[in-house]
Amino acid sequence: MDGPGHPGPPLRHHRRGHRAAGRRVTGLGLDRDWDGPLVAGARVYGHDAYRTAFAPCLLLAGCAFVSACYAPETRGRNIWSAA
User: Fold this and answer.
1) Is the C or the N end of the chain the one with fewer CB within 10 Å?
2) What are phi and psi of 19, to 5 degrees?
3) Among 31, 9, 25, which residue's Cα sits nearest to residue 57?
4) E-assigned strands of the chain?
């Protein structure tokens, strides 16, 4: 796959860091409100901790929806113009 004239790895390899960052943010949200028990060495989180941890996901989904509403529909036409 890699050789002369090949642009490099597929795009999916570049997105792995973003997934890991999302896990880190979610984990920080869970750990911030944790005051529960340990079961077999694993933390047990309550409902409030999950709500707090996944609130940024809901916020980002809302921002993505609003951004998509403002994106123009081109119906396959080129709308680019030089400045």
Assistant:
1) C
2) -65, -40
3) 25
4) 38-39, 42-43
